[in-house]
Design a protein that fits this description.
319 residues, alpha/beta, Immunoglobulin-like, five-stranded mixed beta sheet, elongated
């Protein structure tokens, strides 16, 4: 009898342990490949990263930085807004550093190194409890409203001073560049790159996502390459040079009409006089990362863990 009870309790303990693992929070690497440093895009870099992620109680933030060169401090909202690092809530100077999001609400992080915070090394996030519909991030950069106010066509230099190359920090660099811009029909993109070392290719959504550049819609090898956005829809650009796409040389944008709408049945074309017939295929894409169901809260995990300990104690007592 004792042996049967022990086996049943062992099975139960194993099942509960599996449940604990399944409900653990996810780990989010702050800035992804960019890491935690003074960002090239100023405040927009980490604001963009925060805007494309969902934060739930039980998640863990991982800050990757070089010890002795960077640090990370959790601070109050006022300290975040004024870059005041005098009395942080907590400070970590050894990288990588973890912060567990153990309660819902606002979290603010900055670097205490001189001038780093004013230069954009700060992060504000909003953490929600478990549930399918997390609240919107209150500190994300503003997005364009629809309808869009009429304006003259704009020529955008991709990456600004960075140009078109394999970016430091991976794909986040061009995502940050495009994030708060409204691209309209008759606007143009200018890609500045070194001829013979880089190029720019207009590709399909599938080729963009898989970095398969064996089949392209159009390739420009002369710099600067100026591309007219002459139809609405989703445009996907990358480089055909080895590993350029994989290392983050990718740009995805959505082009709207002059009144702010997008015809998803129309595939974007370019300034070329006679684009290949493949460019008339509809992409029908929606830009932005997919979200996964939020994990259970850390308080629930603690309850389950306590239950597991109790079951093991009972099993030991039976023996």
């Amino acid at each position: 009898m004792a042996r049967t009870v022990t086996i049943n309790l062992a099975i139960l303990a194993f099942a509960v342990a599996s449940l604990v693992q399944a409900t653990a929070g996810k780990t989010l690497v702050v800035g992804d490949g960019l890491g935690w440093l003074v960002p090239p895009g100023g405040d927009l870099a980490y604001a963009t990263w925060a805007a494309i992620n969902n934060f739930t109680v039980g998640d863990v933030l991982l800050f990757n930085f070089t010890s002795g060169v960077q640090d990370v401090a959790r601070v109050t909202k006022e300290a975040y807004l004024t870059c005041n690092s005098t009395n942080p809530i907590s400070l970590k100077t050894t990288g990588p550093a973890n912060f567990t999001l153990d309660a819902s609400g606002e979290y603010f992080f900055i670097s205490t190194i001189y001038a780093h915070c004013p230069l954009g090394q700060r992060l504000a996030i909003y953490v929600t409890g478990p549930g399918p519909n997390p609240a919107p991030h209150p500190y994300s950069p503003p997005t364009a409203h629809s309808p869009v106010s009429p304006r003259a066509p704009v020529t955008y230099v991709v990456g600004n001073g960075l140009g078109w190359l394999v970016p430091p920090g991976g794909q986040l660099a061009y995502m940050i560049w495009a994030y708060n811009k409204t691209f309209m029909v008759e606007d143009a993109l200018v890609f500045n790159f070194v001829e013979g070392l880089q190029d720019v290719a207009l590709v399909t959504k599938e080729a963009y996502e898989t970095c398969n550049t064996s089949s392209t819609i159009q390739v420009w090898s002369k710099s600067p390459a100026k591309i007219l956005l002459n139809s609405t829809g989703d445009y996907f650009f990358t480089s055909t040079y080895p590993r350029g796409c994989i290392l983050g040389q990718q740009l995805a944008i959505r082009v709207v009409s002059r009144n702010g709408t997008t015809d998803h049945g129309t595939t974007p074309s370019s300034s070329i006089a006679h684009p290949p017939s493949s460019s008339s295929t509809s992409s029908g894409a929606t830009l932005g990362p997919a979200t996964s169901p939020p994990p259970a809260s850390s308080s629930s995990s603690r309850v389950i863990a306590g239950f597991l300990i109790t079951m093991i104690s009972i099993a030991m007592a039976v023996f």
